Every structure is written in structure tokens, then in C-alpha cells.
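U., I forgot to send this yesterday:
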Amino acid sequence: MTPTTSNQNTNASSEVTAPDGTNDGTNESGQVDLQPEDPSDDEPTSTETAAPPLLYHINKAYNVVPNDDTVNKKVVLLTFDDGPKEKEMIDGLIDTLDKHQAKAIFFVNGYRVKAHPELLQLIHERGQIIGNHSWDHIDLKKEPAAKMRKQIEDVQNIVKETIGEAPRFFRPPFGSGNDTTHQIADDNELIYMTWSNGSLDWDSKNKNKPEAVIANVLEQLHAGSNILMHELPWTVEALDELLTQLEQKGYGFVDPRTIGPAPEPADAESPKKL
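Result:
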């Protein structure tokens, strides 16, 4: 996404068919041969791991906030917009994320997914998280509700068709939305966010300047920074040094899978007894 501002606080079962042949499973005496039970039959066949617990939420300033005081608040969220573009850049970004044991949200556009579904599959298969960034990367706030809904829901559909699951996160292009945008996101159980730390990697003055990308992020750095970056060559080049400096400053990287809806506020008063 090309923002208008640099910082916006806004056992599956399987059937087994018997092989063809004359052997009907009986022995010479006419009795059925009983095969010993395979103890592994009771073992789960799924290779999926349990989802991590929900520890964080996105607040109204689009920062990442712990759900309680026991959770580390000195963290950042890494995000990349406007993809999927090119395999080389995606692999470069994810190689660095893997080096730092970090996860990120890749906010994708529907028209790019349609053109290169294999790149979406690549991001997913390499363990990163997919977000919804609208179909055409247009200013949704300027569109009627029906078109806005289509821009969002068509991405939900194509991502689910491609990787088997729909996005959980939504970021409007340019950070531009309104009450209707929020409602459509809610209707699709999407967590809405813009950002709170802009790398300005999209700005032409920072083209081919990875050091500028790093400086912009560090200048705005704070606990819970929701960092906006893009699939760009100089961002790929900057990422390893950026993550190294963040680690040296004591910051951790939020796993987006641990981000959920904001917890319900506790009642101000206990119910009065009659």
C-alpha cells in the first residue's frame, strides 16, 4: 500500500478400497484372519500444530497491546503491503524473518493473488501470515458500500480458495476507511488496522536507500509499534539490519497469530444485589 502519511494512529478420514483378487480375507479353514491392530491407528494424523494463545489486540491507535500485564509489551508487529509481487523479494524477506525467528503479516491485493497464486502459496507455506489489503488497492472511503464490500470480500474468497483459509487481518489502502469499512471488516471477522510506525519505504526519496528505511522506523519506534513496510528491493536489503537493531534495543516480534479481538472491558461495578 502507498500510504498518504508516514505515521497513522488511526483423521480427516480416508477410504481404503480392498485390492482386486480372489482372496476374501479367509484362511483355508474358512475363518477370517484377524490382523493385529496397528497402535498407530489411534494417533492423530494431522500435522497441524495447536494455534498459539491470543495475547495481544490492536488498540484504537493501531498499536499492538498486551491483553494483560503478564504479557511482554516491548514488542513490534512487522507488516508488508501490496503483494504478492516477486518470488525473489518474498524469499528474501522470509529468509530474514526466519533468521530472526519472526512472523509478519503480508497484506495482499486480490488482483496480484489472481495473477500469481503460487506466490501467495509460497508465503503461506513458509509460515507467514496473510492479510487482506483489498482487491484493487483503491481508496475505499470514496466508494459506495457495495463496491467496498466486494473489494474486501473478494480477497477473502480468493485467499481461502488458494491456501485453504481466509485472512484474519484487514488493512485499507492508504489507511483510508470509514464506519462502513469497519462494519464490513467486522462482518467478515477481520481485525482492522492501519499502522503506527511508517517506514516510508514507498516514498521516492527513500528509493534504493535501505539506511533511510531503518532510520525512519527507529525514529518512530515505541512499544507496540505496528510497522508498515512493503515488498520493495531496498526494504528486503534493510530488513536484516533493522531486525538486528530492534533486537539490540530489547524488542521482540509479535506472532500475528497471537493477536485477537480486543478483550471485552470489565464491568465498572459488580451487579448490585436486590
